[in-house]
Design brief:
Keywords: Gluconeogenesis, Glycolysis, Isomerase. It catalyses: alpha-D-glucose 6-phosphate = beta-D-fructose 6-phosphate. This is Glucose-6-phosphate isomerase. It is an enzyme of class 5 (isomerase). This protein is of the alpha/beta class. Helices cover 40% and strands 14% of the residues. The chain has four domains: 133 residues; 248 residues, Rossmann fold (3-Layer(aba) Sandwich), CATH 3.40.50.10490; 170 residues, Glucose-6-phosphate isomerase like protein, domain 1 (Rossmann fold), CATH 3.40.50; 43 residues, Phosphoglucose isomerase, C-terminal domain. The strands form five sheets. A seven-stranded parallel sheet has the order 1-3-6-9-12-15-18. It has a seven-stranded mixed sheet with strand order 4-7-10-13-16-19-20. Helix 16 packs across helix 17 and helix 17 packs parallel to helix 25. The longest helix has 23 residues. About 7% of the residues have low confidence. The structure holds 6-O-phosphono-beta-D-mannopyranose. The site of 6-O-phosphono-beta-D-mannopyranose (M6D) has 14 residues, from loops.
């Protein structure tokens, strides 16, 4: 029957499941959501659907006439509605199982109520054949349609209305039970006036509530876009990658031999456009990809709508849907106001004033204006926090040590193990120490306990509570709890719920960084991160460094069975970098539930680990080279060292290892090569020895070579990994920005704590499992013993 060629033109942000029946020339506008099992059939002329429409399950939209069927924007087609209208304006609602015939033109703001049929035909009713044509071919439905149609027709506006409209006058309210339409089936088009409510009795809507209705429609669309994202494994490129991973076995040795330009093809250079010193080269040529795999990975990113989800994040939309929050750590480093969408989110306008607060305080501590209760300048700071309130500042203070104020000691106490606090206090002087209590929630057991201990210790010396104000500051979103702890208002540094804990070093949580390296350097780091943010937000996928890193890792994780990913910085200052991204990646992407509430059918976040080169080489590289596991690795190194001792020889040796390891991993050593190198006859006869010296090679790596570990470059590198993590989460369809997985253990620990001062009978009464009870009872039985040594 189709006389038009199949052609589908889809705008951005359209949700279109695979099982929608689309025939002929169909155009779907931006942001429209089509549900599964809908049918859009341009059987003769084309169908054009505008923006932000919702087309629910089992809706059929048909154009049997050669002229185009143009449908406007913001229309809602509810389940089972059957639409063959001549044209449709904007903001209309077609309720469940409503029908519109091809001789009806719908204006705007019209509602065709559930089960009603808007037709131009007369009261004579329809023959079964006509109905089959008009309302679909299911007999039973046609029967129902006849009854509904007949009832509704009796109440449709009279033919007079039609004539008036044709003369260009305003449509009128039809009176319920008005004259029947008498037009035969070949009658001219009936145009329903705007605001008609077609409920069986025709009325004109006052238009009141229109804004609410529009807002509801927008919410409905948002909800659907989230809920309807298909599982990544249902995307066409996913199946293709599955197949390619089995059929295209990439052998790096051959791939490089065949293609002298492989390095050029698979490497990208990033340079800051405001801070030109930020220069990062990513070489991803030593990965198990070929042209087809790479192109399909890029298509997967498109199909998974990575760009749209990224834009939604930058735009301040509530992409952390489970907690109903925006995700705007990028706003914390957007000092030149590059991303406008963020401004609508509450608190964003407080970022700059809060930075000033950080500047004033950090400068006062650094230049000695801020003194302790006896007038001594501050010599030590102790950051008390855990997770995101510890790892970021601790990692950065180590990484940027060359910029640190060396006569100021920075301690980071996180563990509830009293040892951690005791060792820090041992080297602190209460008169010259500032405690920074860092906790987004200000309820974290470890942090609050450690802070209380620190305050008790301080008061033992200072005696008077009023001195607390000189020695304790709080970094938190929970002003109330911080006040209750006794922190003075002016010593509170706030941030906002749209800053996730593991993305918070850019906020007030970075106060210790600002104190250690100075505010100017802290800001340089923020700006460096913003350079990467702008790159991520606007660079095409195949040039986009965080996207590339995400796709490469996803390929190993989902198609080649890799369970872990190693981060290996050849820079001693970055020795905590892998620890930091252990939280950054594993807390973000260690999830099995998608945003639509389904369980994933595939692997999500990898296990992240690693340590600074070359130490790792003498510890675990054996397994990477010759073990049985596939471990993709990122090798990072600076071109310039901060410490060019012995004329830079240390650094050259370090870099020679940095270059050698990925080469060894990629190309290995064959048995033939081992034999060629072996001179002793005895050794040559020892096949066990010969085989033990074989390296299979083909182990994938990324090499990330940056100019120098400056604050700007570090900021860019951290942001690069943050966005790599987000990209993967977008593709897997999970929420990378909540962390409910940390809760259960906390709750159980709170229940167990009282048992540790109780007796065995109480433990039994609490009904923990046999193992947990057994362990607690063993503890209780031995808790009062004192070991002599
Ligand atoms: O900063 P507070 O609220 O103390 O949380 C500290 C840490 O707690 C953990 O359980 C996680 O939720 C982390 O994301 C968070 O960084």
């Amino acid at each position: 029957m189709s006389s038009t060629k199949d052609r589908l033109d889809v705008g951005s942000k359209v949700t279109l499941p695979q099982d929608v029946d689309i025939r002929g020339h169909v155009t779907i506008g931006t942001g429209t959501v089509v549900h599964p099992k809908a049918a859009i059939l341009a059987l003769s002329g084309p169908i054009t659907i505008g923006a932000s429409c919702i087309i629910e399950e089992n809706v059929t939209i048909i154009n049997r006439s050669p002229s185009p069927l143009v449908i406007g924007s913001h229309n809602l087609f509810e389940v089972g509605s059957h639409i063959e209208a001549r044209s449709i304006g904007d903001h209309n609602t077609f309720e469940v199982k409503s029908r519109v015939s091809s001789q009806v033109a719908i204006g705007s703001f019209t509602t065709i109520s559930a089960g009603c049929a808007a037709t131009a035909a007369g009261t004579r009713g329809y023959t079964q054949e006509e109905l089959g044509d008009l309302l679909g071919d299911d007999d039973e439905e046609a029967e129902a349609g006849l009854k509904v149609g007949a009832r509704a027709m009796k109440r449709t506006p009279s033919g007079a209305t039609e004539t008036i409209l044709e003369e260009g006058e305003e449509g009128e309210a039809g009176e319920g039970g008005g004259e029947a339409v008498t037009a035969p089936s070949a009658a001219p088009v009936v145009t329903l006036p705007d605001y008609t409510v077609f409920t069986g009795s025709v009325g004109v809507w006052s238009g009141q509530g229109r804004l609410q209705e529009e807002a509801l429609h927008a919410k409905h669309l948002d909800y659907l876009r989230q809920a309807m994202s298909p599982l990544a494994s249902q995307l066409p490129s996913w199946s293709k990658l599955d197949q390619l991973s089995k059929s295209n076995k990439v052998v790096l040795r051959d791939a490089f031999a065949k293609d002298s330009k492989r390095f050029d093809t698979y490497s990208r250079h990033f340079q800051g456009d405001r801070n030109k010193d930020i220069s990062v080269l990513l070489d991803f040529s030593k990965n198990l990809i070929d042209e087809e795999i790479w192109a399909t990975l890029l298509s997967l990113a498109k199909e998974a709508k990575v760009e749209e989800q990224r834009d939604a994040m930058f735009n301040g939309e509530q992409v952390n849907a489970s907690e109903g929050r925006s995700v705007l750590h990028v706003a914390l480093r957007d000092l030149d106001d590059d991303f406008k969408g963020k401004d609508k989110v509450e608190g964003v306008d407080e970022v700059i004033p809060e930075l000033k607060h950080i500047r004033d305080f950090s400068e006062a501590v650094r230049n000695g204006q801020w003194t302790g209760y006896t007038g001594k300048p501050i010599k030590s700071i102790v950051n008390i926090g855990i997770g995101g309130s510890d790892l970021g500042p601790a990692m950065v203070c180590e990484a940027l040590k060359p910029y640190a104020k060396r006569d100021l000691d920075a301690h980071f106490v996180s563990n509830i193990d009293g040892t951690h606090m005791a060792e820090a206090l041992r080297v602190c002087d209460p008169e010259s120490t500032v405690f920074i209590v860092a906790s987004k929630t200000f309820t974290t057991q470890e942090t609050i306990t450690n802070a209380t201990t620190a305050r008790d210790w301080f008061l033992e010396h200072a005696k008077d509570k009023k001195h607390v104000a000189k020695h304790f500051v709080a970094l938190s979103t929970n002003v109330k709890a911080a006040t209750e702890f006794g922190i003075a208002k002016e010593n509170m540094f706030k941030f906002w719920d749209w800053v996730g804990g593991r993305y918070s070093l850019w906020s007030a949580i970075g106060l210790s960084i600002a104190i250690v390296i100075g505010y100017e350097r802290f800001e340089e780091m923020l700006r460096g991160a913003n350079e990467m943010d702008r790159h991520y937000a606007s660079t095409p996928l195949d040039q986009n460094i965080p996207v590339i890193l995400g796709l490469i890792n996803l390929y190993y994780n989902n198609f080649l069975g890799a369970q872990t990913h190693a981060i290996l910085p050849y820079d001693q200052y970055m020795h905590r970098f892998a620890d930091y991204f252990q939280q950054g990646d594993m807390e973000s992407n260690g999830k099995f539930i998608t945003k639509s509430g389904e369980r994933v059918q595939y692997q999500t976040g990898p296990i992240i680990w690693g340590q600074a080169g070359t130490n790792g080489q003498h510890a675990f590289y054996q397994l990477i080279h010759q073990g049985t596991k596939l471990i993709p690795c990122d090798f990072l190194a600076p071109i310039e060292t901060q410490n060019p001792i012995r004329g830079g020889e240390h650094h050259r040796i370090l870099l020679s290892n940095y270059f050698a390891q990925p080469e060894a991993l990629a190309f290995g050593k064959t048995e033939e090569q081992v034999r060629e190198e072996t001179t002793s006859k005895e050794d040559l006869d020892n096949s066990f020895l010969i085989k033990s010296k074989v390296f299979d090679g083909n182990k994938p790596t990324n090499s990330i070579l940056f100019q120098k570990l400056t604050p700007g470059t570090l900021g860019a590198l951290i942001a690069m990994y943050e966005h790599k993590i987000a990209t993967e989460g977008f593709i897997w369809g999970i929420n990378s920005f909540d962390q409910f997985g940390v809760e259960l253990g906390k709750v159980l620990a709170k229940k167990i704590l009282p048992l540790l001062s109780a007796d065995a009978a109480k433990v039994d009464a609490e009904k923990h499992d046999g193992s947990t009870s057994g362990l607690i009872k063993h503890y209780l039985a031995n808790a009062n013993k004192k070991t002599s040594s």
